[in-house]
UniProtKB/TrEMBL annotation:
Protein name, per record: Glycine zipper 2TM domain-containing protein
Residues in coiled coil: 215-242
Glycine zipper 2TM domain sequence ranges: 68-109
Keyword Coiled coil: yes
InterPro entries listed in its UniProt record: Gly_zipper_2TM_dom
Single GO cellular component term: outer membrane
UniProt keyword list: Coiled coil
Organism, scientific name: Methylococcus geothermalis
């Protein structure tokens, strides 16, 4: 069975009031995790709003993966509701999602333990990749702005060095934000690459006998994530080059 219509959107039937409350309750823990993660970056002072936003999004993304026990249950409940089309499916999804987030073992092993049918496993992976893609799509433009901000700042610092208004050591001391942004992107990219490799394996394993349309959707979402991971890596490389090659570094 497919979870998507021809527009590649999740086809959500009208929900009875009880089911709406159940799924809303399932989503609350994920929202709480996101809210907690999103405030941490603002404890530090940043040179630009883009850098503060990058810290916020990076922390939220990495904490979402780390807090899989909570978010897995919420997403599992939503997926179960979509696939099962009734409140029992939502309950089963909550339990499966919690197992997916908390159980020891590999991503593949958790999928197999949580979903008996290949199609359900593939649906779960598609939902997982789409959530990742949404996070990365929000994060990449912010990373690009951070890179542009730092290019301009490094250029100004180099002018100050050339004119004798500042030493290289003084200029380098003003790039703590650049270093922080680079560390944030490194952590996020590492998490994204690790999960991408796991999703690659999961899709390869669960598309052998799957509905061809569903398999195509899985590969399309995976290809989109690959492109976004490459884009994020490009921004990280630019920041690294600014810090290590430029005179200021």
């Amino acid at each position: 069975m497919n979870v998507l219509n021809h527009s590649n959107r999740v086809d959500t039937p009208p929900r009875p009031p009880g089911r709406r409350r159940l799924i809303a309750g399932a989503l609350i823990p994920a929202l709480l995790v996101s809210g907690c993660a999103s405030t941490g970056g603002y404890r530090q002072s940043y040179a630009s709003s883009s850098q503060a936003r990058l810290a916020q999004l990076s922390e939220a993304y990495n904490q979402t993966l780390a807090e899989g026990c909570v978010t897995g249950a919420a997403v599992g409940g939503l997926a179960g509701g979509l696939i099962g089309r009734d409140w029992k499916g939502a309950v089963a999804g909550l339990l499966a999602g919690a197992a997916l987030g908390c159980a020891a073992g590999s991503y593949m092993g958790n999928l197999q333990n949580s979903y008996a049918r290949e199609e359900d496993r593939l649906n779960a992976v598609i939902i997982d990749i789409r959530r990742d893609n949404q996070s990365l799509a929000e994060l990449i433009p912010v990373a690009q702005r951070v890179v542009e901000d730092n290019k301009a700042r490094v250029a100004e610092l180099n002018k100050a060095i050339a004119s004798g208004r500042m030493t290289r050591a003084q200029a380098a001391g003003q790039l703590a934000d650049l270093d922080a942004s680079r560390s944030q992107l490194q952590a996020t990219l590492g998490s994204a690459k690790k999960r991408l490799a796991e999703q690659h394996a999961a899709i390869a394993m669960n598309t052998r006998n799957a509905n061809p349309q569903l398999a195509n959707i899985a590969h399309e979402e995976l290809a989109r994530k690959e492109q976004q991971v490459q884009a994020l890596e490009s921004e990280l490389n630019t920041l690294t080059q600014l810090r290590s090659v430029d005179r200021v570094g």
